[in-house]
Design brief:
By secondary structure, this protein is α+β, with helices and mostly antiparallel strands. Helix content is 38%, strand content 24%. The protein has 16 helices and 22 strands. Bound molecules: adenosine-5'-diphosphate (ADP) and magnesium ion.
């Protein structure tokens, strides 16, 4: 087997008639089990359409999958410690803060609440560490670490079951044993519930911070259903930042009061990008929540720890050792890093800049943003660097070596697309979910809770599923 291509779990192509039939079954399964989304073009709250998915689970080496799972608690703890190191965050972000208003607004909130005195020292992290495999050797490399609104834990928990049904329909029952279970949804919700219990106020509520319009509604609602099912005493309320501005207040104990009840946990599914703060009201709401005694998921310092700039700084010599010691863990974490470079105005920054201008294809240029669609690739890297070369703005970007994952053939099933779809070359990105709860001095829980796989056309730069580029998937583990 060539290293740049992995064999699909089923010999392909499938015969046309078989393909058409199994896709129809799979689509119905998806619709009836919430593998769905709202239509962006014809938005209608009464209608859910299928989320894009791949017809067959994508191959993934078992050893690399297990490695990612084993590393998750180490990464959770690393990010927790980074978030509580004020000096490190300040030094790491200082240049970006000068030119990046969004990050600087977040940072200002953090400084403000610190100066006032932290009301709630506990943070809740529902994290997701993302990986691509490097095709030369098929080893995982970290793409990024998400500390806010890490999505698709819920829908992807249903996918092993969907793929088992598809494989059974194809008469391939023997393949099923290669598919790991995924309990991300219950694991993530257990984190919210544990934080709720640590808050310890009977009758308090959980607040989900949501967008004005939620297209990825299934993924969010499943969390609510799960919490309601396991803990009927916990009420979940969904509000936008603007509604939080209008409908909440802090009482004299700094409790966040909503509909007459104290908020125990605030879970952000929005609030990670500038467009989600169209006015000062949203920022005021964020500040109010941060000032309150509610346990935030994430707290503002968790969000700052999740910036690309921090990711780059952690790749500098000695940084990991500072947080997790010089033992085996540091080596294992370093192993998943790929080349990460600052573009600050210093010798290293100049060197990185020249290197990328000379060989742009080898790199991805990333601003301090989340949510997909913000990075630059190929010629755009060179153009942007030539433009930014003498501008202070360049400090808000990092440069990352481009990871080239192995290809696999497969079919992508999309809403409204012709059936059968063409057989195409695909690449997959693995996400591992982690839960952590703790204060600066004490960690109450730290677990790996599940995974997600999303797959995109091999020639697409990015594969966000909510953005319409990627397709939901589940790993088919290979013993290579
Ligand atoms: P965001 O926070 O916007 O999701 P990411 O860093 O996760 O930003 O990048 C978005 C997508 O771009 C990833 O899911 C991946 O498909 C692609 N990507 C990011 N970094 C790299 C890289 N170093 N090599 C190859 N592809 C990358
Ligand atoms: Mg990402």
């Amino acid at each position: 087997m060539s290293q740049s291509r992995l064999a699909s779990c089923v010999p392909l192509p499938l015969e046309n008639k078989v393909l058409v039939e199994v896709i129809e079954k799979a689509k119905d399964w998806a619709l009836m089990h919430g593998v769905g989304m709202r239509d962006k073009k014809h938005f209608n709250k009464d209608v859910i359409q299928i989320a894009p998915f791949v017809l067959l689970p994508s191959p993934f080496p078992r050893t690399e999958f297990n490695k990612a799972i084993e590393l998750q608690p180490v990464l959770n703890e690393l990010m927790h410690k980074v978030a509580h190191d004020e000096r490190f965050l300040e030094q790491t972000l200082q240049n970006a803060l000068q030119v990046d208003e969004f990050t600087s607004n977040l940072y200002d909130i953090w400084v403000k609440v610190r100066n006032e005195g932290i009301t709630q020292s506990l943070s809740l992290g529902l994290f997701r560490s993302d990986y691509l495999m490097q095709r030369d050797g098929n080893k995982i490399k970290q793409v990024e670490f998400n500390t806010i609104a890490s999505s698709f834990g819920a829908i992807t928990s249903n996918l092993p079951s969907m793929f088992r049904y598809i494989l059974r329909s194809l008469g391939m029952v023997d393949k099923i044993k290669h598919m790991p279970e995924n309990r991300a949804l219950s694991g993530l919700c257990a984190g919210i519930i544990e934080a709720y219990d640590l808050f310890g106020v009977p009758g308090s509520v959980v607040l989900f911070v949501v967008e004005e319009v939620s297209y990825n509604i299934c993924d969010q609602r499943f969390h609510e259903f799960q919490i309601s099912e396991t803990r009927p005493d916990i009420q979940v309320i969904r509000k936008t930042l603007n509604e939080i501005y209008e409908e909440t207040e802090l009482n004299d104990k700094k409790q966040l009061i909503l509909e007459g009840k104290a908020v125990a946990v605030v879970y952000y599914r929005s609030g990670y990008e500038p467009a989600q703060y169209p006015s000062s009201r949203e920022w005021d709401a964020r500040l109010r929540v941060e000032r309150s005694s509610a346990i935030k998921c994430p707290s503002i310092h968790y969000q700052l720890a999740g910036t690309k700039k921090v990711q780059q700084a952690l790749a500098l010599p000695g940084a990991l050792e500072k947080f997790i010691g010089a033992g085996a863990s540091s080596g294992r974490v370093r192993d998943i890093f790929t080349g990460l470079y600052s573009l600050d105005f210093d010798e290293a920054g100049e060197r990185a800049l020249e290197m990328a201008i000379a060989d742009a294809e080898r790199f991805v240029l990333k601003p301090q943003r989340e949510g997909g669609g913000n990075n630059l690739y190929g010629d755009d890297v060179r153009d942007a660097l030539l433009r930014l070369r003498h501008s202070r703005e360049r400090a808000a970007y990092i440069l990352m070596e481009r990871i080239l994952p192995p290809l696999v053939s497969g079919y992508v099933v999309r809403p409204g697309a012709p059936v059968p779809p063409p057989l195409t070359d695909l690449v997959s990105e693995l996400g591992i979910f982690g839960v952590i709860i703790g204060t600066k001095d004490k960690i109450y829980c730290n677990r790996q809770v599940g995974h997600m796989l999303r797959t995109k056309l091999a020639d697409a730069n990015e594969g966000g599923v909510a953005a319409g580029l990627g397709a939901l998937d589940s790993p088919y583990l290979l013993d290579m």
